[in-house]
Amino acid sequence: MAKGRPVKSEIRQNIVEMLYFMKEGYGYEIYRAYVAIFPKVTMRSIYYHLKKGVNLHEFKVSKIEKEKGDYSWGPEAEKIYYSLGNNAKPSSNEKIKEYFESKK
To answer: What is the distance between the alpha carbons of residues 7 and 20, in angstroms, rounded to a whole number?
Structure first.
């Protein structure tokens, strides 16, 4: 029996479904959409699954932007945009599809 966490994750699969409709998005944007559709999850968990998904090639980093502003942590924020990778297997989820169609 393998040690550690299982590779498959419901949260990560939901993010795959969301990115299928979003095409690309940054961490906080993905988090906001996730909590609007599914039960509450921590932002830390979303970022964990995004990083894990990049390692598993379910997601890829499409671009990194630095945004200037007056933030509590300093003068700029770094936004890492994610899109679907080669190993992503989206299967159309009606709940997610309805959410993004209502946002248009």
So the answer is: 20
Say how far apart CA 98 and CA 86 lie, in whole Å. Answer: 25
One-letter amino acid of 97: K
pLDDT tens digits, 18-44: 999 999 999 999 999 999 999 889 999
For the chain, give the mean pLDDT. 90
pTM of the model: 0.86
Secondary structure letter of residue 91 according to DSSP: -
To which residue do tokens 């932007």 refer?
A: 65
Burial of residue 84 (number of CB atoms within 10 Å: 0-12, 13-18, 19+): buried
Whether 78 contacts 64, CB under 8 Å: yes
Q: Is a pLDDT exceeding 80 seen at residue 54?
A: yes
Q: How far apart are CA 26 and CA 63, in angstroms?
A: 9
Pairing of strands 25-26, 74-84: antiparallel
